[in-house]
């Protein structure tokens, strides 16, 4: 099932944890695992510790496709299509449409499961006003309210069904019919992987491997239907590759042994999914004297971390871009203060009455 919760772009990791409890745990309890992207809030120390204490396994998705965990991305696109049709011109009422979109998506038939999310979760579909029959009402406002609900549900169903058909058609046009099986060796695209190698990305390997397939994920087939092609595969990756090991087939291609029977190269080093620290902004600086030497440090705010995690960092730990932005902001602030002081000095002082 999907749950949509309005939030802001200023939310931090603690806000994310509260949204998770209010919108997921409250309804379903703690899951055994959570698959997410590499947003700074999901890779923050706070979120990682909350998940560890709650006994929830974290998996950072690298598949980037709407048919693996990218199911989330597909739902996002359908939701965006829905909101695009209903928000006002100022786009400031989008949060009012989330509840109806959530209800309709959870009550929509899914071809992969042969049921709706409501059926799978509650063993039944919810009742709708249209199923209750028409009843005379002595309160016209109440009748209009129920009628509006039913009309909004029907409009949302048509909009979401249209978006699903459109994305399915697009995916079918770009789907490869190459199938994969357990035990087969494949090459993995480096499109979404950070290789730990110097130089421009254009000159780095486009494929790495080979890797053996441990498990394939394919749509269910009826007994009298032929087996459908795999949509994703779980690979046997080196222990040093701390990344999610399930990939969409668009990121794989069959490995073919070289004609000279030479062994393939060893594993290429990639950046690990360990603790990730990205500078949000520099807040201040100070100069520390160490004997005859002076060392400059910067008070740094980190993406995905609250103010309690700000740290003093030496200049060597700061990217040149972050330093340039910091000094530019200080210069701009100084110019504004200077202009303000000049304006105040130019104004005649009022004489006080005696």
TrEMBL record:
Residues 277-318 form the Chromo domain. Residues 146-173 form a coiled coil. One of its GO terms (biological process) is DNA integration. It comes from the Eukaryota. GO terms for molecular function: nucleic acid binding. Keywords: Coiled coil. Pfam families: Chromo. Residues 1-125 form the Integrase catalytic domain. InterPro entries: Chromo-like_dom_sf, Chromo/chromo_shadow_dom, Chromo_domain, Integrase_cat-core, Retrovirus_Pol_polyprotein, RNaseH-like_sf, RNaseH_sf. SUPFAM superfamilies: Chromo domain-like, Ribonuclease H-like. This is Chromo domain-containing protein. It comes from Gonium pectorale (Green alga).
């Amino acid at each position: 099932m999907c749950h949509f919760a309005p939030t802001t772009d200023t939310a931090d990791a603690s806000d994310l944890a509260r949204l998770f409890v209010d919108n997921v745990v409250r309804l379903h309890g703690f899951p055994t695992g959570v698959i997410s992207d590499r947003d700074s809030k999901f890779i923050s120390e706070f979120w990682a510790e909350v998940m560890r204490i709650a006994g929830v396994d974290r998996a950072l998705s690298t598949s980037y496709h709407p048919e693996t965990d990218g199911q989330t991305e597909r739902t996002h696109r359908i939701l965006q299509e829905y909101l695009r049709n209903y928000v006002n011109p100022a786009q400031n009422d989008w949060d009012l449409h989330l509840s109806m979109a959530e209800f309709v998506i959870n009550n929509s038939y899914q071809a992969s499961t042969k049921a709706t999310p409501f059926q799978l979760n509650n063993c039944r579909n919810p009742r709708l006003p249209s199923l209750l029959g028409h009843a005379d009402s002595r309160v016209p406002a109440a009748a209009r309210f129920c009628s509006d609900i039913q009309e909004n549900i029907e409009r949302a169903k048509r909009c979401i069904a249209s978006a699903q058909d459109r994305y399915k058609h697009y995916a079918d046009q770009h789907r490869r019919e190459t199938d994969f099986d357990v035990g087969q060796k494949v090459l993995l695209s480096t499109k979404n992987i950070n290789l730990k190698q110097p130089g421009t990305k254009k000159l780095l390997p486009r494929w790495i491997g080979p890797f053996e397939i441990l498990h394939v994920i394919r749509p269910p087939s009826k007994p009298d239907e032929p087996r459908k092609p795999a949509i994703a595969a779980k690979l046997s990756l080196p222990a040093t590759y701390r990344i999610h090991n399930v990939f969409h087939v668009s990121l794989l291609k069959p490995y073919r042994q070289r004609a000279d029977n030479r062994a393939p190269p060893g594993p290429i080093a990639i950046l690990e999914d360990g603790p990730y620290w990205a500078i949000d902004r520099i807040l201040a600086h100070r100069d520390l004297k160490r004997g005859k030497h002076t060392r400059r440090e910067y008070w740094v705010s980190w993406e995905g971390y609250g103010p309690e995690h700000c740290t003093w960092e030496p200049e060597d730990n700061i990217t040149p871009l972050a330093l340039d932005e910091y000094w530019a902001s200080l210069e701009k602030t100084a110019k504004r203060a200077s202009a303000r002081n000049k304006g105040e000095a130019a104004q005649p002082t009022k004489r006080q009455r005696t």
